[in-house]
Amino acid sequence: MQNFLTFGVRHRTLTALIIALVTIVCGMGLGKLRVDTSFDSLISDSDPTKIIYEKIKDEFGSDNTTIIYVRSANLWTEERIGALENMHFALEDLPFVERVDSLFNVRSIRDRNGMIDSSTVLDGVPFDDEEMQQARDNALYSPLIVGNFISKNGNVTAINVSITKDPNDPDFDRHAYRAIEDAISPYRAAFDEVFQVGPPRVNQDTETNLFDDLALLVPLSLGVLTATILVFLRSAFAPIIPMITSTISLVWAFGLMGYFGIPVNILSAMVPSLVIVIGSTEDTHMLAGYLGGLQHSDKDAPAREKRRLATLFLIRHLGLPLILTSVTTTLGFAANGMADISLVRDFAFAASVAIAGNGIITLMLVPLMLSLFGPLRSRLHKTATDKDTTSKPDDHDIHGPVALVLKFCRAAAGKPRMVIGITVPVLLIFGLFAFQTKVSNDPIAAFKSHHPLVQDVNKLADTLSGMEIFYINLESPQPNAFKKSENLQKLADIKHYIINDGRFDNALSFADHLSLVNREFHGGDPAMMVVPDSEQLVDQYLLFFQRSDLESYVSHDFQRANIVVRHNIHNSHDLKQAVADLAAKASAIAGPNIRVNLVGQNLMINNAAEDLIKAQVQSVALLLAVIFVMMSLVYTSTIGGILSLVPNIIPIVIVFGIMGMFDIPLNPGTATVAVIAIGIAIDDTIHLLSSYAQESRQTVDRLEAVRRTVSGQAIPAISTSVALTAGFIVLLWSNFTILAQFGGLSAIAMITALIADLVITPVLLSYVRLVGLYEILSLKVGQDLINNSLLFKDMSRYQIRKAILLSEVVEFKKGDRLVDQGSIGRDMYFILSGSASVSLERDGHTTTLATLKEGSVLGELGFVHEQERTANVDALSNGEMLLFNADTVRRNMRLYPHIAAKLNLNIARILGARLAETSSRLSDYHREKGT
C-alpha cells in the first residue's frame, strides 16, 4: 500500500504521464456525450404494466399528448379562427404527429327543431357573424367539448396533438418541441396567449434548465469551495489542488459516460458540484496532514527536503484512511445503481466513477504536487515563538474559526451523559417523523412553483383540464360487449365516480358519446343524458359518428372500451392513493367478467416512486453492511464496525425525520441523500477512528487519546464539513426543486454528521480501545523474541501483535530507573529492546539479583495483585518496553476475550515459574544452611 501511496513522489514524471494520457483518452469521449431528459428514464424497467400499456396504446392511440393552449379575450373572430385553423393544419403536417384534435374535427351533436345535427364544431372559418355565433354556441353546448377543447367562458381553446415517439432518436423530444414551436409561432401574434404543454415541452425545459444549472452551480461551487478552504486552511495554495483534481476527474467520468453511451440527466447536473466539493475533502485532509508534517520537520532543512518529509508524514499517517474513505464514498454513490429507474442508475454511474477517479487522482497527484510546490509554513498552528517548543501539540496550538468550533465540541463531549441524554430522545422524535415520509416521482414536481412551465400547466388545468392523461381500459370476453346497455352503464358509473370524487379533472368514454346522442334525441333534456337502453338504439346512434370519432374510446369489435382520464395531480403519493381508490371502484363496478386495467405513462412514472423506497432501503442496507464488515476487519473487532456506523446512521434519521416533518417527498433527488450522506460522512469517521487507534498507542489514558484525536482531526473535519455544507447549499439555487431539496437535506446531513463525529463519537470512543489491522500487520516484532517469550506462548503472530498494540510503548535510556523498590503499581513490563538490571536495596547495601534482556517480563506479580515492588529495575542501555497496566488491559481485552485468555494463562505460567524458581532457591538456601 505504501508503494502505491508514495508512487507519485517516487515517480513524478511517470505519474504525470499516466494521468495526462488517461485524461486525453477520456476527453475524446466527451464528444459522444448526450443528454436524456425523457420521461422514459423515470419509469421502472420492471413495471408489470408496461407490456399492457404498450398493447393498449397501439390500439387506442398514444397518451403522449401535447396540448396547445390558445387564449384570446375575443376568440371568435374571423382572423383568429382562421389562424387557429392554419395552426391545426400545420400541426397535422408534422411527421411525428399521430392525430390532431381541435374544434375543427371534434363532433358536435345537437337537436335542431326535431332534427339531429351531427357535424364538427368548426367546418372551416365561418362566413359571417351569425355562423360564428352558432359555432361558439355549439362548442359551449356540448359537455364532451367544454373542459376538453373550450373553456366555460369560450375564451380559451385547446388543440390536442397525439405524438408517436421515435425510439431511435435520443433527441426526439427536443426536435418535437422545436417543430411544434415552429408550427404555432407564425400565429402567436393573433392571440393573447399561446403555449404548448406536454412531454416535449417538459423535456426541453428540463434540458435548458439543466445547462443553466451547470453554468451557475459549477462556478458557484468553485467560489464557495475556494472561500471555505482559504478561511480554514489559510493557504493560497490550498484551493488549487481540488480545482485540478476535480477537473481531471470530471473529464474521466463524463468521457467514460460518452464511451459507454450513458446520458447526462437531471441528476447528473449536480455531479460537477458534488465532485468539486466532495473531492476536496480528501485534498483538505491531505493538505492538513502535510501542514502538520511541517510542524515535525527540521526548520533548518532545505525546502525540498521539508516538502518531501512533510509529504511522507501525511502518507504515513493518512494512507489507510484515504483509501478507505475513497472506497466508502464511491460505494455511497454506486449503491444507487440498484434502482430500477434509469435516471438514478445513470447518476450512480456518473457520480461513482467521478468520485473513484477523484480518489485515484488525489492519491497519485496530490503527493506529487505537495512534494514539488507545497507551502513551507503552516498558518494553522502557532509557531515555536508562540508556545513552549517542548510541549506536545494540542488544541491550544489551533487558532482561528476551528478553535471556536472545537471549544464548543470539546465542552459538549466532556459531558457524556448529557450528550447521550439529548441524542436518544432527539433520534426517537425524528425517527417517528421519518415514517411519515412520502414519495414523488412526477417530472412537473421537479420544477419550482414559479417556473413558467408549472404556471402554464396549472393555467391549463384551471381553465380546461389537466395535461396528465391515463386510460381505464375495460375488456370483456363477450362479442359486442360494449354495445350492451348494462356494460355501457358500467362505463357511465365509473365516469360518475370520477367526477364526484373530485380529484381528477375530466373523463371521456364511449358511453358519453352515446349519452349525448340520447339526450339530443329527447330534445336536449339533461335528464336523458344517459346510455341507450337497447343494442338497437346503440347501432342507431353509431350512425351519427365516424370511426375516427370513437377509435380512442372503443375497439372495432366492441369488446374493449377505453375511458380517457385527465388530471393535474403532480404529487405521486396523492396520485397513487387516488388511482388505487379508482382502480378498486372501477373493478367493483365492472364486475368479475370484465378485466380492468389502469395504464398510462404518468402512472408508470408514479409507480416507480415506490421503487425509490425499495432501492433506498436496499442501498442503505448494502452500504451499511459493507462499511460494518470493512471497518470490523480494519479494526479487528465488531466494535470498530459498530462505532463507524453510529455517527453515520444519525444523519439519516435526522434527514428523514425532517422530510416527514416538513412534507418533503422522497423523489429521485432526495432518494440519493441517505447513501451519499453515509458515503461522505464516513470520511471523517474513518479519520477519527484511525487517529484514535494511533493515539491509543501513545497513551493508555483513553480520555487523553480521545482529546488528542479530536484536536488532531478538528481542522480537516470541520473545514471539510463546512465546505461540504456550503457546497450543498449552493444547490438551493438550482432551477429544479428536487436538486434544491437534495442540497438542503445533504447540508443538514453534513452538519449533523460533524456534530456526531466530534461530539457523540468521542463519547463512544472513550469506552473502547481500537487496533488497526494495518498496524498489526506492519508492526515489526523479532521472531526470536516471540519464540522465546513465555508471555506470548501459544499465540499466533497476529495475536501477539494485537496484544502488543493494546499496550503502551515506553522508551527508556541508559541509567533510567524503571521500577522503584517499595512503590505500589499494577504495571507489568515486557522488554522489546535493550537490557536492565534487577537489584535489591537492604541495610544500605545493593545486591544485583538478575539482568533482564529482550523478551524478559517484570512486574507480573503487581499486575495480578497490587502490592509493593520488591526490587529496583534500572536500564543498562537505551531501549523500549511494553507497559501493560492491569486496569487498562482488563478494559481493552473485553473486546478480545480469546487473546485475553491466552495472555492471562501465560502470566499464570510466568508466576508459576517464578514461584517454582523461588521455591528451588529457598530449598537450596536451607540445604546449604543445614550443611
From TrEMBL:
Keywords: Cell membrane, Membrane, Transmembrane, Transmembrane helix. It is found in: Cell membrane. It is a multi-pass membrane protein. It comes from the Bacteria. It holds the Pfam family cNMP_binding. Residues 791-893 form the Cyclic nucleotide-binding domain. The keyword Transmembrane applies. The chain crosses the membrane at residues 12-31, 214-233, 266-292, 313-335, 347-373, 418-435, 617-635, 642-662, 674-693, 714-733, 745-768. SUPFAM superfamilies: cAMP-binding domain-like, Multidrug efflux transporter AcrB transmembrane domain. Residues 243-372, 641-767 form the SSD domain. One of its GO terms (cellular component) is plasma membrane. The keyword Transmembrane applies. This is Cyclic nucleotide-binding protein.
